[in-house]
Predict the 3D structure of the following.
Amino acid sequence: MDVAPILSALRRHKVAVSLIVLEIALSCAIICNLLFLIHERIQRLQIDSGLAETELVRIQAATARQLEGGEEGIDRTVSLEYLNAMRGLPGVSGAALATQVPFGNSSSTSSVRLTPDQKDESLTASVYLDGGNLLDVFGSRLIAGRLFTPDEYRDLETIEGTDADQGVPAVILNRKMAERLFPGQNAVGQSIYSWGSQPTRVVGVVDELLRPNGFAEGAYTMILPVRKYTPGMHLVVRTTPERRAEVLQAGVAALKAMDPGITIFASDTMSEMRSSYFRQDRAMAIMLSVVVLGLLVVTALGIVGLASFWVQQRTRQIGIRRALGARRVDVLRYFQTENFLITTAGIVIGMLLAYALNLALMQAYELPRLPLQFLPVGALILWLLGQIAVLGPARRASRVSPAVATRGR
């Protein structure tokens, strides 16, 4: 179709055209950035913890004797009693004590160096202490090396209380940490320095093990064969997905039966922990989606309103074109082409505004740079929206009768 008559008609309505172009441009700029923010939130919701989440429950509890302080070794005794109680529950395939778990409220970290005389740390990693079979219970997938051997385990009290700096003999890294420390190399057999001045040998690498929180601070985690017994340790229990609620209820009941004065700080499934942790991200994604939908509706109404106004103003001209032989499909195509040109102008300006808006957000909120692929996505959405929005007025224009349209205004 020859667009010259269309451009000529648009120039005669500069104010109206400019307003709708500006509306489309602003919508494009905002929508592109909102789609990016929604994508970021959805990615966080889908982050891999490295755990068999659908098979895990956790209970956090402590006895009054622990909380009040008591005889030496009470923490160890009580923790092991609780652990044995969990292992004896029907349907339980494994249980372990954990100092922290993914999607928890706190994270223990430690700096990591590659040489003993290194001044600046190579990275900071979140530290999981494994008192025995923790990775088996977690369901973490070992991709290199091996698990800890019995002779590699140490008691935290011994490490902290000894005069000699014995350190920790072995460590297991997650894949991202291994790749960061030893790019292009096999991490197994290498050494790092973290706890004390003695080297710690890397004996294994797991595919993934998420830090408990603060994902933006780094994706690096390591597991040390250190036994720690403190009040409120996480009792992580593995069972089948369909028996999680049953095992969780039975576990709490068993602990209360053992110790009527027990304090239960938390009892939930790992799936519930994930859902609770990402509650704000999920709400933000929904809210931003509603904003995008609202912008699309407002933009569509603007296009419909302008197209309807122009159909009303051009009724006589349309009738003349029909009388001269224009088909209904020609009239329909005319309005759709006209809208396509207006939308394209708005999108071009909107893409520039989207980039400028992203730069402002990067400076104000430390957001990442807007990936270029979101620009054509936003453009395609607005192009489709424009064609759909103008379809109704365009069809009404195509149904104008030549006889009625030429009988004056």
